[in-house]
Amino acid sequence: MRLQKYIARSGLTSRRKAEELILQGRVEVDGQVVKELGTKVGMDNLVKVDGKIIRVEEVKRYIALNKPRGYVTTLDDEFSREIVVDLIKDVEERVYPVGRLDLDTEGLLILTNDGDLTFKLTHPSFEIEKTYIALVNGIPNENELESFRQGLLIEGKMTYPAKVKLLKTHGKNAELEVKIHEGRNRQVRKMCDAINHSVISLKRVQFGPIKLGKLALGEYRYLTKDEIEELKR
Ligand code: URA
């Protein structure tokens, strides 16, 4: 944000007075006196007024994004692929994805700058349930779905019991609703592989209490107060 806004946000003084302080050469950013009013600063900068450090309490942001395919959830990518945080425009705070979604998976991704909440939501012991819609090759029979529910051996380790429902069929393929509360790498894809019905496309539609709803691909919205409270609960 602009330096004068940063100073005003710290509670030290008004924005107009902050402008005067800057013009008077009383403001330093990272050890350098700054006299230009428009200078941009962020949480990574150290701002001093008359030699005293001032701090701004960062507003906590909670965002739901409909991640398109082809975007990675890491913060930079060694192969220069598109990254999800670049879809978040007009948000001053730097927000980070809560957990991961594969490159080819679309759907609900929560982003926030609330590190405590991210830690809890991604920690296996909290067992947040995530719901996916998977279009799979072939039509799984009841036995196969039952083994899905009981747990499957993936890379030498059993998955926890999952919930699965056959929603509909599309010709020779089927649409499944899958609910898991683990976060193993490519877990839904590997579970579907394990019953010999590989995933054609995968979309996350719910994360704990938060639903994807009607967000278009690539679009995002702020979570409501109630949603944030439910998520924390
Ligand atoms: N399971 C997967 O296979 N991929 C995801 O992105 C999330 C869950």
Fold and architecture overview:
With 233 residues, this protein is α+β, with helices and mostly antiparallel strands. The protein folds into 2 domains: 3-54, Structural Genomics Hypothetical 15.5 Kd Protein In mrcA-pckA Intergenic Region, Chain A (Roll); 62-222, Pseudouridine synthase (2-Layer Sandwich), CATH 3.30.2350. Helices cover 21% and strands 31% of the residues. It has 6 helices and 17 strands. Strands 5, 8, 9, 10, 13, 14, 15, 16 and 17 form a 9-stranded mixed beta sheet that branches. A 4-stranded antiparallel beta sheet has the order 2-1-3-4. Helix 1 (3-9) packs across helix 2 (15-23). The protein is elongated, with a radius of gyration of 23 Å. Bound molecules: uracil.
Itemize the secondary structure elements and their pairings.
Layout: H1 3-9, H2 15-23, E1 27-29, E2 32-33, E3 47-49, E4 52-54, E5 62-67, E6 71-72, E7 82-83, E8 96-97, E9 105-112, H3 115-122, E10 130-136, H4 142-150, E11 153-154, E12 157-158, E13 163-170, E14 173-180, H5 187-194, E15 199-207, E16 210-211, E17 220-222, H6 225-232
Parallel strand pairs: 6-7, 9-15
Antiparallel strand pairs: 1-2, 1-3, 3-4, 5-9, 5-17, 8-9, 10-14, 10-15, 11-12, 13-14, 15-16
Helix pairs in contact: 1-2
